[in-house]
């Protein structure tokens, strides 16, 4: 009995009454045509005609449910009133034919059950109230109410309150049953279709791709800056009392490196705040800024270029190439100290080649627990462009090699 009147049952009852209210315009429109068609000027004079008009109204409602926006409105009402888990319902308008057909079925079921329960809600309580009050108010016995014959007999007034309470409980039971039926049908008719699931999976994949790209940008930019700043600060500390000019240059390099990195960090975090989609371009330097990177890297770099890659490589390839070089310099600083680095960047035909070498240290480098994300991130950058990148020991040198497709070199940047 308690479940017939608890909060969930009441909310579902309200949802049914909402369906009845939505069915009224269709019912009134159908009554305009059903009455004259059956030779009656007013359908409200006959219960049969009213049911006929209601039967005609439901297919009309089903047709209007094919509009895409009907589904999100219905889903919102179900989530708020029917206690259906949100993840079992679809998001957004119905785009496919299957989704529209399911929505039309739901809309018809909601309005059909809602119309019946709403009619019962309007009719049953007044009649049940009259029955409950029948023993106390004698004039009700002679009223024009169409009371059953048994209630007019000797024991009739004593049984009337029981009959009235039974009718109210029956009404609540019908409303609870109809509400439970709608709650069970909602995930089937308003749940995601295969096309909706595919679109959601594509959105999740796009979001994950953007997160990975932003993570790589932060790692390469901030990681390189921290490595360079650490090296410059350590070198300045060692010669603090002997070479003031070197300390001044080191502090200047630290200042410029951190200022530039803060700007890049603000740009990437700005994309996070704006919810940038996967199609948006990430900000960042290109090979045009390579000279500044090498000058402030904290290590001597012998750089040779072939084919003018800064001017002719496509912008995306140029940006990823810059980050790959930056990650290579970070590894050289982290593991090789101040050992000189050789860098060759060549644009040959439709391929951009990057080769970076630095001597291996006498002592094996300390590896962070679980490994770093720099080299895998560099490989991901190359793979996403359709290229290849690898790094490893070759004799007594550490060599980084990356080959990136540069089709359309010299085109729009």
Automatic annotation (TrEMBL):
<feature type="transmembrane region" description="Helical">
    <location>
        <begin position="158"/>
        <end position="183"/>
    </location>
</feature>
<keyword id="KW-1133">Transmembrane helix</keyword>
<dbReference type="InterPro" id="IPR011712">
    <property type="entry name" value="Sig_transdc_His_kin_sub3_dim/P"/>
</dbReference>
<dbReference type="Pfam" id="PF07730">
    <property type="entry name" value="HisKA_3"/>
</dbReference>
<feature type="transmembrane region" description="Helical">
    <location>
        <begin position="12"/>
        <end position="39"/>
    </location>
</feature>
<keyword id="KW-0597">Phosphoprotein</keyword>
<feature type="transmembrane region" description="Helical">
    <location>
        <begin position="105"/>
        <end position="138"/>
    </location>
</feature>
<dbReference type="GO" id="GO:0016301">
    <property type="term" value="F:kinase activity"/>
</dbReference>
<keyword id="KW-0067">ATP-binding</keyword>
<keyword id="KW-0418">Kinase</keyword>
<dbReference type="InterPro" id="IPR050482">
    <property type="entry name" value="Sensor_HK_TwoCompSys"/>
</dbReference>
<feature type="transmembrane region" description="Helical">
    <location>
        <begin position="51"/>
        <end position="70"/>
    </location>
</feature>
<protein>
    <recommendedName>
        <fullName>histidine kinase</fullName>
        <ecNumber>2.7.13.3</ecNumber>
    </recommendedName>
</protein>
<keyword id="KW-0472">Membrane</keyword>
<feature type="domain" description="Signal transduction histidine kinase subgroup 3 dimerisation and phosphoacceptor">
    <location>
        <begin position="211"/>
        <end position="276"/>
    </location>
</feature>
<keyword id="KW-0547">Nucleotide-binding</keyword>
<keyword id="KW-0808">Transferase</keyword>
<keyword id="KW-0812">Transmembrane</keyword>
<keyword id="KW-0902">Two-component regulatory system</keyword>
<dbReference type="InterPro" id="IPR036890">
    <property type="entry name" value="HATPase_C_sf"/>
</dbReference>
């Amino acid at each position: 009995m308690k479940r017939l009147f608890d909060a969930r049952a009441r909310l579902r009852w309200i949802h049914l009454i909402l369906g009845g209210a939505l069915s009224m315009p269709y019912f009134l429109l159908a009554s305009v045509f059903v009455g004259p068609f059956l030779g009656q000027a007013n359908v409200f004079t006959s219960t049969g005609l009213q049911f006929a008009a209601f039967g005609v109204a439901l297919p009309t409602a089903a047709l209007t449910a094919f509009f895409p926006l009907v589904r999100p409105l219905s889903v919102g009402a179900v989530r708020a009133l029917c206690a259906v888990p949100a993840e079992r319902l679809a998001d957004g308008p119905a785009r496919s034919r299957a989704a529209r057909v399911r929505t039309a079925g739901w809309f018809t079921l909601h309005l059909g059950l809602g119309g019946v329960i709403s009619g019962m809600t309007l009719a049953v309580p007044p009649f049940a109230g009259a029955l409950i009050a029948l023993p106390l108010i004698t004039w009700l016995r002679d009223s024009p109410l169409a009371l059953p014959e048994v209630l007019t007999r000797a024991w009739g007034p004593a049984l009337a309150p029981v009959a009235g309470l039974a009718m109210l409980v029956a009404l609540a039971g019908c409303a609870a049953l109809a509400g439970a039926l709608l709650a069970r049908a909602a995930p089937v008719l308003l749940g995601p279709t295969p096309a909706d699931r595919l679109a959601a999976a594509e959105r999740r994949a796009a979001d994950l791709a953007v997160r990975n790209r932003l993570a790589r940008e932060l790692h390469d930019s901030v990681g390189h800056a921290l490595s360079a700043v650490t090296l410059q600060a350590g070198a300045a500390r060692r010669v603090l009392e002997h070479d003031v000019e070197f300390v001044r240059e080191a502090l200047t390099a630290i200042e410029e490196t951190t200022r530039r990195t803060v700007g890049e960090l603000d740009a990437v975090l700005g994309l996070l705040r704006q919810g940038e989609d996967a199609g948006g371009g990430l900000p960042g330097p290109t090979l045009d800024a390579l000279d500044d990177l090498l000058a402030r890297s904290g290590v001597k770099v012998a750089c040779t270029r072939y084919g003018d890659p800064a001017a002719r490589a496509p912008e995306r390839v140029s940006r990823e190439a810059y980050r790959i070089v930056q990650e290579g310099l970070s590894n050289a600083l982290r593991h090789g100290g101040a050992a000189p680095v050789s860098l060759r960047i060549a644009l040959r035909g439709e391929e951009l080649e990057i080769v970076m070498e630095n001597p291996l240290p006498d002592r094996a480098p300390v590896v962070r627990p679980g490994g770093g994300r720099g080299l895998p991130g560099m490989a991901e950058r190359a793979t996403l462009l359709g290229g290849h990148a690898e790094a490893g020991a070759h004799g007594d040198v550490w060599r980084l090699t990356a080959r990136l497709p540069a089709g359309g070199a010299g085109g729009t940047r």
